[in-house]
Amino acid sequence: MGGRDLFGYVGIEAVLDQMRRKTMKAGFEFNIMVVGQSGLGKSTLVNTLFKSKVSRKSCTPSYEEKISRTVHLKSVSHIIEEKGVKMRLTVIDTPGFGDQINNENCWDPIVKYINEQYEKYLTEELHITRKRRIPDTRVHCCVYFLPATGHRLRPIDVEFMKRLGKIVSIVPVIAKADTLTMDERLDFKQRIRQDLQASGIRVYPQKEYDEDVEDRIRNDKIRENIPFAVVGTDKEHQVNGNKVLGRKTKWGIIEVENVAHCEFANLRDLLVRSHLQDLKDVTHYIHYETYRVRRLNESNASVSGLSALPLENGITEKYEAQSQL
Amino acid sequence: GMDAIMLQEKLVERLLCARGRTMRQKVDKQYVGFATLPNQVHRKSVKKGFDFTLMVAGESGLGKSTLVNSLFLTDLYKDRKLLNAEERISQTVEITKHTVDIEEKGVKLKLTIVDTPGFGDAVNNNECWKPITDYIDQQFEQYFRDESGLNRKNILDNRVHCCLYFIPPFGHGLRPVDVEFMKALHERVNIIALIAKADCLTPNETKKLKDRVRDEIERFGIKVYQFPECDSDEDEEFKQMDKELKECTPFAVIGSNTVVEARGQRVRGRLYPWGIVEVENQSHCDFVKLRNMLIRSHMHDLKDVTCDVHYENYRAHCIQQMTSKLAQDNRMDSSIPILPLPTPDAETERLIKMKDEELKRMQEMLEKMQQQMHEKDQ
User: Fold this and answer.
1) What are phi and psi for residue B197, nearest 5 degrees?
2) Cis before residue A61, ω within 30 degrees of 0?
3) Shortest Cα distance from A5 to chain B (angstroms)?
4) Second label for B318, Cα 20 to 30 Å away, from A43, A313, B81, B178?
5) Among A26-30, A221-225, A248-252, which stretch is predicted with the lowest mean pLDDT?
6) What is the mean pLDDT of residues A113-136?
7) How far is B229 from chain A (nearest CA, A)?
């Protein structure tokens, strides 16, 4: 029955072209959150990743490099275009995280924000007349910046990633890695991976979401190398007659896009060139669905009714399901 | 070049002179001969040896151990094990001590390094400096007791002479924990602030960060250790060098436990794919300046300031507290004094009595005022 050869050419593959054209016309959204203490180069890295001044630091005229007393989230959106493809990039910054003397629960505002975006989307989805394209403000990727201590994960790193690994795709990176020699970097990464495993933290790409063998092989390679050790800059220098992005010191120039120097290119490939759509898919089909199921089970059972408050992390709402869904 | 070496040697001389002017006597017909005193002191010191207690503080992973090893050419931490992430969650701030005897050209130094593992590493670091201030106070208290005791021949001096505080290069200046730590300690110990792991900064970034830190230290009223002024009769070159050293603070340092080959020589350094950082290259970092200031020229002054200023502050404060507590105890008819007091001389006793009466008067006045206010409200 199956596997019959088709006589003649049907033209199915042309559908791919149609999809492509539609996507290009519509453009797409990508929301990336950056988390880490003040001064770890978050804004610079994001600018370098997307080769544009997209960070809040570059766009806000009154930006002050000061440690804020509370954690609050700020987002900045830009439309960037490449080869006819338009992307609406939103960068969500988290100033104040980890900067205080007492950082207990400094992750709560972040958890709240992420859940609020899921809630927004869910509310739209449940409307009787729905928009054709629901605006997507959900966080597709959370880049977590680790300082290059060379030792291990710190308690605040474990606490943050434990909680957030359950609701968003975390990509940990070693920031300002130009203070680590190659050996130190390898040892550091290994210890971090050990700590992640020992604490039960799942970072992106999670093993359980590999779709097939091909995925698994590709993602295993990534999993063996994370967290990526990155260096960021927006300055260019001349090296061997070429203009390169780099940091110039008295002992040499650190070339950001040179894989022998740092893993910025690997990170860029992961986030932008190869796994961008996958990050969105994991967010939509896994993290969002988890939220949705939990939410629907906890709210009133009727089709249109939903409690007004978005879910706090792990805390069940007081609304009990009155009837079985 | 050669000048630098001569100037270095001058700095070494200062190691052997107490704070203040060195005695200079012109050789003339009435030569008595006590100009040899510095040499006598020198000889005695060489026989006896020196001791120095250095504290290092700062978050985990800022290269403290590596820097200490580099400064004193030792390997103090080879048996250290790093706690894993789970263990660190329940870690508290500890004080650890390592002692090492160093001998160079017949001069012996007993060096004690006081380490503060766990400082600033937790999620909640409220008052994480308290174990450290307690430790410093305990050493003062112990010295105070010993000094007041009967057998003073072999007093052990465990007082902390200097605290190197490591500021991360990752931030934009001082963080809240840096400010609070330094303010808690600046009246107990000589603080020298350092910018750690300075090899992740470009020259421009280093300058900006130093300016910012210096500015914030002043703004927050933090009293870091001040290198003493040059004697006015030093030559211009020395004064210039001294000025440059002072303007270079906070020192941006890099340490290394390994020897690498650079420019045809074997040097302490760090090997990167993009180049080699040489710890002792003054255009790479301020390690040499720190070493010179700390060891070669100001070790003695650091001890003097500890004894003459920080310890004296502690002692005066202590005596005041004891006085007021005694006054309280007297009123309450309790007996035991807190510390074995040195028998005060008549003058001190009179002063204490005066203070006591003053306190009593003030107390009575307060009570009267409170009563009046109370009556008013009725």
Assistant:
1) 45, 50
2) no
3) 56
4) B178
5) A26-30
6) 90
7) 32
Q: Give residue B341's pLDDT.
A: 52
pLDDT reading at A313 higher than 60: no
Contact indicator for B270, B254 with CB cutoff of 8 Å: yes
Examine the pLDDT at A125 and tell me if it is beyond 60: yes
Q: What is the mean pLDDT of residues A169-186?
A: 96
Residue B26 vs residue B92, higher pLDDT: B92
pLDDT of A310 strictly over 70: no
| Integer Cα distance of A55 and A40 in angstroms | 14
B122 contacts A155? CB cut-off 8 A: yes
Q: What is the largest CA-CA distance in chain A?
A: 73
pLDDT at A203 over 60: yes
Residue B155: predicted pLDDT? 81
Give which of B86, B274, B278, B287 to mutate to test A binding, by max A Cβ within 10 Å: B274
**Interatomic CA distance for residues A272 and A23, integer angstroms:** 16
| B298 in contact with chain A, both atoms CB, cutoff 8 A | no
Tokens 């450290």 sit at which residue? B132
What's the CA gap between B62 and A13, in Å, rounded?
57
Long-range contact pairs involving B75-81 (C-beta distance under 8 Å, separation at least 24):
B75/B257, B76/B100, B76/B113
Can you spell out the DSSP letters for B89-148? Answer: HT-----EEEEEEEEETTEEEEEEEEE-TTTT-SSB-TTTTHHHHHHHHHHHHHHHHHHH
Tell me the pLDDT tens digit for each residue of B338-368.
Answer: 555 555 566 767 777 777 787 788 778 877 8
Measured CA to CA, the distance from residue B280 to residue B289 in angstroms comes to 9
Taking residues A186-210, report their average pLDDT. Answer: 94
**Whole-angstrom distance, CA of residue A200 vs CA of residue A191:** 14
**pTM: predicted TM-score of the whole model, two decimal places:** 0.80
DSSP B18-81: -SSPPP-----TT--SGGGHHHHHHHHHHHH-EEEEEEEES-TTSSHHHHHHHHHT--TTTT--
Best of B200, B207, B259, B276 to disrupt the A interface (most A CBs within 10 Å) is B200
Q: Where are the alpha helices (DSSP H) in A127-223?
A: 155-164, 182-198, 213-223
Put the strands of the sheet holding B265-272 in their side by side order: B259-262, B265-272, B275-278
User: What is the H or E stretch that residue B280 is in?
Assistant: none
Longest dimension (CA), chain B: 90
The residue among A76, A71, A87 whose CA lies nearest residue A35 is A71
Q: Which one, of A157, A138, A127, A160, lies nearest residue A286 by Cα?
A: A138
Q: What are phi and psi of B343, to 5 degrees?
A: -65, 115
Beta-carbon separation of B170 and A150 below 8 A: no
Of A40, A103, A198, nearest to B85 by CB-CB distance is: A198
If phi > 0 it is left, if psi is from -120 to 50 it is alpha, else beta; for residue B114 that is beta
Residue of B192 and B246 predicted with greater confidence? B192
Q: What is the pLDDT of residue A110?
A: 96
